Amino acid sequence: MPHDSPSAILDDDPFQNLEQASFSQVLHSSQKVGWDGIELLVYRLSAVEDLSIIPEQTFHQDSITLHLEGSLDLKRHHEGRWLQGLSLPGGLCLVPKYAPILYHWTNVATALSIFFTPSFITDIIYQIGRGDPLRVELRDDFNFRDPLIEHIGRALVAELQSGGLAGRLYAESLAHSMAIHMLRNYANIIPILNLPQGTLPIAQIRQVREYIQAHLVENIGLSELAAIVGLSPSHFARLFKQVTGYAPHQYLILRRLELAKKLLERSHLTIADVAQTVGFYDQSHLIRHFKRVYRISPQMLRHGRNVH
Questions:
Q1: What is the per-residue pLDDT across 135-148, written as a single tens digit (0 to 9) for each?
Q2: Do residues 150 and 229 both lie within one domain?
Q3: Chain-wide mean pLDDT for the chain?
Q4: 18, 65 Cβ separation under 8 angstroms
Q5: Highest mean pLDDT (candidates 87-96, 196-205, 231-240)
Q6: Which 3 state secondary structure label does DSSP give 83?
């Protein structure tokens, strides 16, 4: 039978906690890719017979966990009672900051946990809630499903497994979309759904475009671009797409592809060298995006085939 939960341990480092635990094996973490505002862990859980080895903990960050593989008879100690359910791939558990966390489970499974820094959530609350962030709290929810959160979560896992192939801008844009959705649908007060009205003046768009062009080969972050025009990342991303028709990370890829096309047509650099020169992770990354946008491969372009 489950035992009573012990006193919670306040812990700021979920990475270290899971890495040191005997019941989990960390497969991937975002510590090396340096995404702003979020921390990700993909890990495998072992079946636990001695439930006393699992500590109850409390974190300073809001977090959500996505069940990726396997099935679990999952229990969570919450407000003096045990919640229980069969957790299958796609299942989610949302835990607000400072809420005690104690899970028990059987079998083996793989999961993703995402931790949102307080400042990241606060900035988004200001943008979509127009309220005091101290009065807005994510709900505590156990073993539920949300197709959009699952989709974004799996996209972040794929990006993490690639080593950050698509860059910070892509990952941070996904994180903002997930956080906005969570705050709209799982907060303890209902935010205003309509984002602030307005647009980006042409001069500010030009500033952002010039910055992207000057730093094309760098791993640009969403907060970097937003700071140029003095907006929060989520507000900037919405207005930028409203004006240009592209999300910031999509615009960055298009500018890289334009330069790559010129180099392929006008230089003798290898395709691998072109990829590195314009900021793609490697040759295969360039080829994939080039075919998607231009409908031909870089090799075909060099052999005289025109793009559509």
A1: 678 889 999 999 99
A2: no
A3: 84
A4: no
A5: 87-96
A6: strand
What is the number of alpha carbons within 13 Å of residue 123 lying toward its C-beta?
20
User: Is the per-residue pLDDT at 198 higher than 80?
Assistant: no
DSSP assignments along 103-161, one per residue: EE--S-EEEEEEEE-HHHHHHHHHHHH-S-GGG--BPPEEEE--HHHHHHHHHHHHHHH
The CATH number covering residue 60 comes to: 2.60.120.280
The share of the chain scoring above pLDDT 70, in percent, equals 84
Backbone torsions φ then ψ of 194, nearest 5 degrees: -75, 125
CATH number for the domain that contains residue 281? 1.10.10.60
Is the residue at 195 inside a domain? Answer: no
| Residue-level pLDDT at 85 | 92
Q: What is the DSSP letter of 51?
A: G
DSSP state of 33: T
Q: Which two tokens stand for residue 300?
A: 């075909």
Measured distance CA(221)–CA(138) in Å, rounded: 26
